[in-house]
Amino acid sequence: MKHLPAALFVLAALPAQAQDLGPICPDRPGKGTNACTLAAGHAQVELGLFDESFQRRSGVTIDTGNAGALLGKLGVSDRMDVEAGMALHQFQRVHDLAGRINASGVGDLFLRAKYNPISSDGPFALILAPTLKLPIAPSPLGNGAVEGGLVLPMSYDLGNNWSLAMTPEADALLNASGTGHHANLVDVAGIGRNFGKLSLGAEVWTAQNLDPAGTVSQYSADVDAAWLIGNDTQIDGGANIGLNRATPDLELYLGVSERF
Asked: What is the pTM of this model?
């Protein structure tokens, strides 16, 4: 696992060979997952340059984020790719009347496969994406538990460069008590519009953490933009606005993706 960052940078050094494909289809930006897989024999690196969220509640300030969040992909068939990702630097700052507590370190390792069960080139796309989290992050950045889930990205081409997308997800997470697991249900619904090299999107996100100690519901309204450079490079950024007290007030991020 400690060699994962080096392997991803090796992928980044490979000569570009994707000129014959359509535009790059990364999972950035936005909280949703794109309903596409990477073509067989190609590699892709998606790098979160900066991501930070801000929350102020009753005199307590909590800022969390990461830099250098890497996601590497390898196309293994015309319908399937395999992926691995982790944040090289993750941080948390908690400040209240008692003082300040800072924590930092690497993030957990996430493994995922994306499979396209639909062979047609019609307007509807669906992906099956089982995900596994391996605990690497130190406490309190991670909970030290192996966790997993299933993500079902789907999209519909509305024509005239408009599209709809939805990403329902169900996870099995460790209970706050430290024993047993519970369901965490997530969904993202969004609409997007392409203007040539520029893409703009808006999403609504919800997460329902059904821990036996008490359900935590989160909601946000999100906007994002992406700029295509050639067919194989994309830069992006976005802002997520919390809609209730359990959700960070604001999250800002920037990133870049490259296909080889």
From this structure: 0.88
Which of the residues in the chain have pLDDT under 50?
A: 1-18
Spatial CB neighbours of 116, under 8 Å, sequence gap ≥ 6 = 36, 37, 79, 80, 125, 126, 127
Over residues 55-78, the pLDDT tens digits come to: 999 889 999 999 999 999 999 999
Structural domains of the chain, with CATH: 4-259 (2.40.160.40)
